[in-house]
Design brief:
The protein starts with a helix and ends with a helix. The relative contact order is 0.10. Helix content is 15%, strand content 2%. It is mostly loops.
Amino acid sequence: MNKILLGFPLLLASLAAHASWIECAIIPHSQCPHAEFSGKNLAQANLQEAHLLEGDLSHADLTKANLKGANIYHGKLVGGNFTEADMTDITLYNSDLSGANLTGANMTRAKLKGANLSGANLTDTNLTDAEIDRVRFNNAIFCRTLMPNGIVNSGAHCSAIKSAKSD
């Protein structure tokens, strides 16, 4: 019996280390380290306060999703669609959001320290009080973007976006 009991913690540790093998529930407060949601349709999903440490949400559709207080530390969100998502108080430390569509996303108080937002679309994104220390914004699109200091940033691409919407 001792051998079985001693082996059980090792099994749990192994399962936790490879949580992507297990189907993760898409519900608030989920505990899914290494979650694999790449390319999935998660539009309007409720992942409030979910823990998706090192999760892969690359090219996933999270349009209008609830990600309030979620923790996606070291996450892979490359090319993801977060249009109008509620990302208030989200933790994305050292996450890769390059090429992500964050149009209309609410990122109030988002923790973005060390994140990569290169090429991301930040049109109408709210970054009020967001932590943006060491964030890479290379080639990001700023158009009516509310910055952490309360200033609205409308970069060079903004007029092209307006004219494309009016066509």
